[in-house]
């Protein structure tokens, strides 16, 4: 797993360049937001189950057809699988927040799930909506703690964009 620092250095190394002013500014921003990223992740980790539960309830309130007969989350097993997946996305989003880099999401979550979701016929729209609801729930909690909410956006928006590119 890479972080913002190793990704930046790798990019400059591949082009055979020294770190320039832009690179230094990027590094400063990474370190300047470090405490806020750690605090945001601490908030998430302290109540992850409740965050997933709240986002799941909101998703199924918006899309009740998902839990009706014939819906993707109709059975208890499928309902639990949806919440398990949301917890999985949340956990990896915290890794990406700490690293300030989305590579871990691509490597560990998105690349493999494309094939799985396509083969199982998992509806992508509700998946993306669930991710966005989780982001909104977390943004609210992070804002209450006085932490800049932009830290939360990047990993959740990256997952939403990537899932939106899947054709089912």
TrEMBL record:
InterPro entries (alphabetical): Allophycocyanin_b, Globin-like_sf, Phycobilisome_asu/bsu, Phycobilisome_asu/bsu_sf
Compartmental location: Cellular thylakoid membrane; Membrane
Gene3D superfamilies, sorted: Phycocyanins
Key word Thylakoid present: yes
One annotated GO biological process: photosynthesis
GO (cellular component) term, any one: plasma membrane-derived thylakoid membrane
Membrane topology reported for the UniProt record: Peripheral membrane protein
Keywords carried by this UniProt record: Antenna complex, Bile pigment, Chromophore, Electron transport, Membrane, Methylation, Photosynthesis, Phycobilisome, Thylakoid, Transport
Residues reported in the UniProt entry to bind (2R,3E)-phycocyanobilin 1: 35
Binding site for (2R,3E)-phycocyanobilin 2: 77, 82
Pfam families: Phycobilisome
Entry keyword annotation includes Thylakoid: yes
Cited PANTHER family: ALLOPHYCOCYANIN BETA CHAIN (PTHR34011:SF3), PHYCOBILISOME 32.1 KDA LINKER POLYPEPTIDE, PHYCOCYANIN-ASSOCIATED, ROD 2-RELATED (PTHR34011)
Family, per entry: Belongs to the phycobiliprotein family.
Name used for this protein in its record: Allophycocyanin subunit beta
Lineage: Bacteria, Bacillati, Cyanobacteriota, Cyanophyceae, Leptolyngbyales
């Amino acid at each position: 797993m890479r972080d913002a620092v190793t990704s930046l250095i790798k990019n400059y190394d591949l082009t055979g360049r020294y770190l320039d002013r832009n690179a230094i500014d990027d590094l400063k921003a990474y370190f300047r937001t470090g405490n806020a990223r750690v605090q945001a992740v601490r908030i998430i980790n302290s109540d992850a189950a409740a965050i997933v539960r709240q986002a799941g309830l909101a998703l199924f309130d918006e899309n009740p057809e998902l839990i009706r007969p014939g819906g993707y989350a109709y059975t208890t097993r499928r309902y639990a699988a949806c919440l398990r997946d949301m917890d999985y996305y949340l956990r990896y989003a915290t890794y990406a927040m700490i690293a300030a880099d989305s590579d871990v999401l691509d490597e560990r979550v998105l690349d493999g799930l494309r094939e799985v979701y396509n083969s199982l016929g998992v509806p992508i729209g509700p998946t993306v909506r669930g991710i966005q609801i989780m982001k909104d729930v977390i943004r609210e909690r992070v804002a209450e703690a006085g932490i800049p909410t932009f830290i939360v956006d990047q990993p959740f928006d990256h997952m939403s964009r990537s899932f939106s590119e899947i054709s089912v």
